[in-house]
Amino acid sequence: MVLCLGSKEEEPLDEYDQLPFGLKWRMYWAKKETDPRTGEAVLRLGNNRILKTHCANTEYQALMLIDRHTSVPSYKVLAVYNRPEGKLVEYEAYPGKPLQECWSSMPAHLQNKIVSQVGRFVEQLRKMQPPKQCVVGDATLGAALDHRFGSGRIGPFFSIEAFQEFERRGHSVDDFPEKEIQMVHAPKKPYQLKFTHASLCPQNILVDDAGRVTALVGWESSGWYPEYWEYTQMCHLTPKTMGDWLDAMCRVVPRYDQELACEEALRARYSGSIYDAPRSVRAPSPSPSERDAEQQEIDDKNTSDTSG
Prior knowledge:
It is a single chain. By secondary structure, the protein is of the alpha+beta class. The chain is 33% helix and 16% strand. It contains ten helices and twelve strands. The strands form four sheets. Strands 3-4-5-7-6 form a five-stranded antiparallel β-sheet, with helices on both faces. It is globular. InterPro entries: AGP_Transferase, Aminoglycoside_PTrfase, Kinase-like_dom_sf.
């Protein structure tokens, strides 16, 4: 509400969130840290409390979604503040060591225990139902943030085919001689959407000394992707020195080896940074009848039973 004194018009009230006094006090005394995984500035508010500054909404929205629908261990979002300097997010953070640092020194029975846990967590994520069919995007079906495609946001894409066409930089499938691209990106190939961590690698798995996974971190790239995306991203992000971990994971998550070969062929052609540039070649625009048919297909899938 705008208050007026005489004929003088006051400025609109600040639309940014006010920080609670208690939080300001804790921030003043907080220990400043740098996340070794991302380089982000983090304030340590207490043993299990951290505050992230300039936090990507793709991360905390994904964490809130999986907290509601799964038992996957992850940081808990306690509060989100919209501030002039960006989003401030307070988390309940669980302690643990990155698996990458301790895997090689672990006995085999603890390694097997960790792999089994991560496999069950991936299964829970894949059982989640998308709020809309066909849409490839972040947890809320908005633009995704995936460093596979440069520094900017991508999408959302209103079909898996549109996402694949973006991967090809607008080129037709017939422009690629690689048979894996032709087969995986074939028109109307039936892939399902699955909720995907998209950075499932040992660096983003925190564990304790008893072989318990305390948290999966690194959710900023997560979202609704084609069903093979978790597998192909996991294979690319796992360090070569941890091939035994990757081999073990391939036994507990669905494998998509043809899709992996397709992604390798596309990565060989297009580096991540190239997606920051405008596309020089685009697929032909669909005719009005083709657009109507595609929209009708999406509407048929998005019934009252599938819409969020």
